[in-house]
## 1
Amino acid sequence: MQCACVEIPELRLQIITRREQTDTSVPLAVIEEDRPAAQVLELNAAARDAGLRTGLSYTLAQSLLPELHAHTVTDTEIAHCRSDIRDRLYAFSPGVEAWERIQGVFWLDTQGTGRLWSSPQAWASEVYSALDACGYSARITLGFSRFGTYVLARTMKERAGIRAVNTADEEQRAVDHAPVTCLPLSLRSRKRLRKLGITSMHAFLSLPAPDVSARFDRSARELHSFACKETPVPVQNHVPEVPVTTRIHLPDLTNSEQVMRFLEDPLQQLVLSVMNRGLLVRSVELTLHDEHDGRHHTELIPSAPSCDVKMLIKLIRMRLEADRIGSRLEQADMLLQTVRSDSRTQDLFDKGAEPGTKRAVAFALIRAEFGNASVRRIALQDSHLPEEKFAFFDAHNATDIPVLAYGYVDQSAAGPVRRVFLEPVPCDPRELFSSADILLGPVRYAPRWWIGGSGRTYYILGHGEIPEYWCFTDGPSWWLQGLVQ
Amino acid sequence: MTAMFPDRPAGLMLARELVPEAGTRRTYAASECPDTESVWSFNSLSGSLVELYGSSSLTALMPVLRDAQKQGEDVCWIQTDTTIFFPPDAHAHGVDAGMIYVVCAVAGNEPENPYAIAAGKAADTLLRLRAFRCVVIDLGPRTLRMAVLSRLLRCARLYNVAVICRTDGNGLLGSLVSVRVEANFEGPPDEGHGAGVLAYRLRAVKDRRTSVLWERIQRCGSAVCLR
């Protein structure tokens, strides 16, 4: 056993049940807001037995079942409840992770518990009893991976209980055979999967990542990416992040050099406090308030998490000089985002001569001067429309870049290279066709025809055999998509 | 010669004395033209500031990028407007577009020529820190200041980096460039190449590496490949 998943099913409903102390025979609903058209998010067994379903509006649900009791749960209540559960789980494991994506899901690191409990099942029983004693029904699963244990919990028939698998293969088989509907996907994604005939988890996870990112919504993308990670990620223990912040009074300054003089000392103090906690600075968020109550917010990201004050000052100075704030500044708020310092992160600074580090420093300087979106990478996408055949991704978060496998490339068939306009430019067809001949076309693309998307007809125009223009018409108007160069 | 340079230390010779044809404008005949590998490849362009222009400049650039990537070097592409090479076309040429870092910078505080100034600054930062060994600056109709070009040339030579500036016209970058190449599409080369084949001519207008001018004709697929 490597990890355990604790799922608190219908967390919001359980919060209400604990808060209101209602009887289970009373039909109960959780609605998203306190208004008649609000959507019903969760229902207890009594309400479900009466024929209600989630997704209905509150008005409709109450017209169907007049004795329905509806409540809302605030984000603060949920956060408080999660924190409470997490604290209780720390009594059973030093490593507890609360999943940010889905409320009510926790993972516990079970390694090393064998010396304190006779068996993993005995350990799980105690966790179950502890949660039950404070009014939480939980499904607890013991397994080998975070996603595997989560799916095991979701496929349990009982509302509360314990389930364990003995081998990683057994867990994998259980995941493969689980229905895809056990994942909390949106209604739209579920419909799309049904249309594609994808019912099992194995079929869903076999879909290529670029196709999932192109055709499904964010939640489906994130779940697919989470499940398909090649390297299993262990339980990520929660480390409380204490914001490191300060407020500096600026006496009506307009010059960036003057502003820097007021920022340097407080920044040094903040970085010192970060170092004392064994943390590193991941980014500096600076908010400048001017005399007209205007706010200029900016975020500076160093090449790697560090406590190098000189570099941070340099980045802030570059950004302030580039932004050239004209009005008088009265106040500055500085917030340091931190990460845990481990030996591996510290090693990065000792390897100053590595090309990757130099590149990161160069990019940090460029981002400081020209904005955080100035350094990007390209990822090919599977689409028909030229401007959707590729996308830009932030080079800083290289892990988010999807890789589309195009397979073998026959370079002998490579043609001229086109220059694409990131946004097509309107053009006059008479002028275009009077000066050039059609070399290729019409080539018809009908993107999203199933939802009524308008088609495009593409042409390559040029002189003799030499291509020059790449244009298209979408019916009423003509657009220049690019040039052949 | 000594009369022209009376203060020259003994033993120091001028290039034209060492190489008789240095500085002359001789075009190679087709038979004696250097092969493409020795004049138009990543290795041959390393340490040079290159100006590339003409109707097929993007297509002519792809073999160099592919060559750099084959040698394990990542490429940085500095944009100066809202256009870029079409990544699937680059992919067809064997270039891994995913390993090209794109820098799109605008110097908002510069009222004149903000894109070119930002491109110059970004290229300077990348070269000074030796972040890449192949940097492409897609200048288009813009130009860089002489001071910036001078710094780029110095860094390119010092760190053996290929700095390729793609421009829209001949001589936009002045006399500092080491290599100036014109690349233009031509019709189908001859019947032997078969139908559906296009060619582009690479013509060195200036080449300080060899001091002689060269020409090469390269083949590529025709417009049909753009489907």
## 2
Amino acid sequence: MAAVRVEEVLAAAEEQEAEKRRSVTVEKELELEFDLGNLLALDRNPPPAAGLRGAGPRREALLRALARDNAQLLVARLWELPAERAGGAGGPLVARLPEPAFRLPREKPPPRPRPPTRWEQFARLKGIRRRKRTSLVWDEQAKEWRRRWGYRRAGGDPARAWLAEVPEGADPQEDQFARLRREKRERVARNELNRLRNLARAHRAGTGTAAPAAPLHPTGHQSREELGRVARVARVSTASLGRFQPRLPKEPAEPPSRSGGRKRRFEPLLGNLAAERSRQLELLRDMGSKRPVLDITRAVNKQLRQEEAEAAAAKGKKQSQRGKRGRRQQRAGRSAKKSGARRQQQQRPVGSGTGGGGGRRKKA
Amino acid sequence: MEALDRVVKPKTKRAKRFLEKREPKLKENTKNAMLIKGGNANLTVTEVLKDIYAVKKPFAVLYKKKNITRPFEDQTSLEFFSKKSDCSLFLFGSHNKKRPNNLIIGRMFDYHVLDMIELGIEKFVSLKDVKNSKCPEGTKPMLIFAGDMFDVNEEYRRLKSLLIDFFRGPSVPNIRLAGLEYVLHFTAVDGKIYMRSYKVLLKKSGCKIPRIELEEMGPSLDLVMRRTHLASDDLYKLSLKQPKALKPKKKKNISHDVFGTTYGRIHMQKQDLSKLQTRKMKGLKKRPAEKSAEDGGVSPKKSKSAS
């Protein structure tokens, strides 16, 4: 009897659970597709067309029931996401959403990487890396921390500098203040010129790669490449594809190449015998002569520079991997443990054994 | 036109920030929408634009004046507006005898029109007509699309993508579960699209998941699809392209097996086993006698032999 009652109790409990669950479960023919990152649910089931045809409150009620079912499924999914309490124990329950899965078009095309400036190229080649400077500098005269530049800078106000020493080799009659002002103006102008040149280079690189078929600028700002391209296109846009177009006096006669000069062309095997003979004799002459064809110093310098750049890149990568602590340890290690014998051991392994010392001193 | 966007050097920090906000970025800003009235917009259309503006605040701009343009014929003025206000979604409302209560919904890519779909409003119930409580502005809505037409028909598929883009709101990593208050439900049936907005009431149910009750709120529209101007396939593919930097980085040296165990792989340098530090046991410590015996038979200093 007790057993029967236990079974009854269990069955009743199960039914209660099912009852509770029934209020939040929804039956659907086809499963919905969810994109929780966008809070999106897509229902592929065909809606009951018959009920929705007649206008009026019945349609509204049907739409609302459909919406309620779909919303219930979406909310059930959202409640299953990992949730935590934001802002401590008493804060609101916050769920972490996944990345939105539905692919939507972008607003603007992805940014194009700008080409490196002349300094950036040089720095990459030499392995020079940016050093982070402190924003405040200790000023001895004012005995406090001052900015490196700007309002109340560390070296004192440059406009109030009342003394300008005449350097050793200079003309004693020359106005030093005027000279300083002139040099500053020249420096600013040079910087501005270089900045504009870098911008122009970046702009040219951008338009060159992105819009090869852009029309010509109406006035001014026509670069040489643009003019050449447009002239070429205009020449070929005739009925006979530019074969009978008169050429300008100094324009070279080009054979029409449809691929725009991309394919390699080979000479026919039995064509010009005289040219072949002269080419072979030239080859034999070069082989027999004592003068080296390869300029060794230039080659060695090029190789050294390449190795330097590679080493700098590798060192940079390793340092960035190790992080701040690694860098500090490395620097401390290097300065602390240097001794005569050790220094010889730790010398950087030079790649090319032959031209290492000699090649470095001479410049091609 | 390129002369107009010559490189302008900003003279203030504020101008620089303004320009930086508008330039193309890896992770983009939330799309803004501009709501424009056509040359002869009637009351219905104006009300619709105002209600959609209320739903999309603060990522929308509502223009008050009428603009006499025809988007399907000439898109330059739309593109000019988009460039000026940095909006990539637009909603243009107009009304004439041939196309009454017309609404053109569209989006831009790189300030040029990508897709445009013309919809006709058949019935409209505005926010003020429904006398229920509203949810706060700026709530991220839940979007539900019902009906197989949204998958079968190409134009309906683009319309679905457009509507998601339009009403999506900002992309957020976390969301407060109690703040899920707004639902936009689109049903495609019989060549008509019913858009309904409901406020969500979370009721107690026995288990963790609450029971949902919906209350009608907000604008409800009955729409009919008219003309479309969809982007060509390759332009659409170009606009979908995401830069590689945004792809989730694969974590190396971590693998999972069938049972859910996570395995990691550590790469170490070669260990010098002779210098290995093992446990020190005092009893096994080498006494000086044994050490010198090992060293080659040198007699210890203190010999313990009996005299």
